[in-house]
Design a protein that fits this description.
Layout: H1 3-16, H2 29-36, H3 40-52, E1 56-59, E2 63-66, H4 71-85, H5 88-111, H6 114-125, H7 133-150, H8 154-165, H9 168-177, H10 181-197, H11 201-226
Antiparallel strand pairs: 1-2
């Protein structure tokens, strides 16, 4: 379990124990970090992760609050973190994506127009130097959607859209909890775009396989650690 996961678990326990209630404001960052024995950076990442699933509400200039949810809904939101870590169904969708996406990328290397491939580079550049996880995931979904459309196979594109959507939560959580994943994802996207631009069909398939296997490998390792 990562340090960020430890921080998430610590905040979760404070809510489960009733120490923090819906609507309560979290203690100041340095005070809470010292109390929990965590670095301020780990605590900050945990807060960002919990805000993504609407457990915490970060109000700029005012502080961070537990969202005003009904207790049962709040626990459901927090249970999501554990549920998807232990859900073999997510792994099955990731396996399906690993089977479909390389084939789609290979077809795109042969059929996608040069203009559309150049548009992928523009899409990646639009993220800037330091995108947030949320911006990266949105960009990632659009990146792969365009490649699927460029494959010229509407059936495969539809299948991939369905499968990919079911893995979005895992991809978001990986971006929050795994160090360096934002830069890694961007580098892999640029490698895919370059392979498409140079019409290297085999390379396009290979880099796509490595790319989509990353989330699956991370989740399998997480499941081992949970066990």
């Amino acid at each position: 379990m990562s340090v960020t996961d430890d921080a998430i678990e610590a905040i979760k326990q404070m809510i489960v124990d009733g120490e923090l209630k819906p609507g309560d404001r979290l203690p100041r960052e340095p005070d809470l970090a010292e109390r929990l024995g965590l670095s301020r950076n780990s605590l900050r990442e945990a807060v960002r992760a919990l805000s993504l699933i609407h457990v915490l509400d970060v109000r700029r200039g005012d502080g961070t609050y537990v969202t005003s949810l009904e207790p049962s809904l709040l626990m459901d939101a927090m249970g999501f973190v554990v549920d998807f870590h232990r859900d073999d169904t997510v792994l099955q969708f990731l396996e399906a994506r690993r089977a479909i996406e390389p084939a789609v990328t290979e077809l795109a290397a042969m059929r996608m127009s040069t203009t559309d491939i150049e548009g992928l580079a523009v899409l990646l550049d639009s993220l800037g130097a330091e995108p947030t996880v949320e911006q990266l995931v949105d960009n990632d979904l659009e990146f792969h959607r365009r490649i699927a459309a460029g494959s010229g196979n509407a059936v495969l594109a539809s299948l991939l859209e369905s499968v990919s959507g079911r893995t979005q939560r895992a991809r978001t959580w990986r971006g929050v909890t795994q160090e360096g994943v934002v830069a890694q994802t961007l580098a892999e996207h640029r490698a895919i775009q370059h392979a498409l631009a140079t019409r290297q069909v085999d390379i396009a398939r290979a880099v796509a396989t490595l790319h989509v296997a990353g989330v699956e490998q991370w989740l399998r390792q997480t499941l081992v650690e949970q066990a």
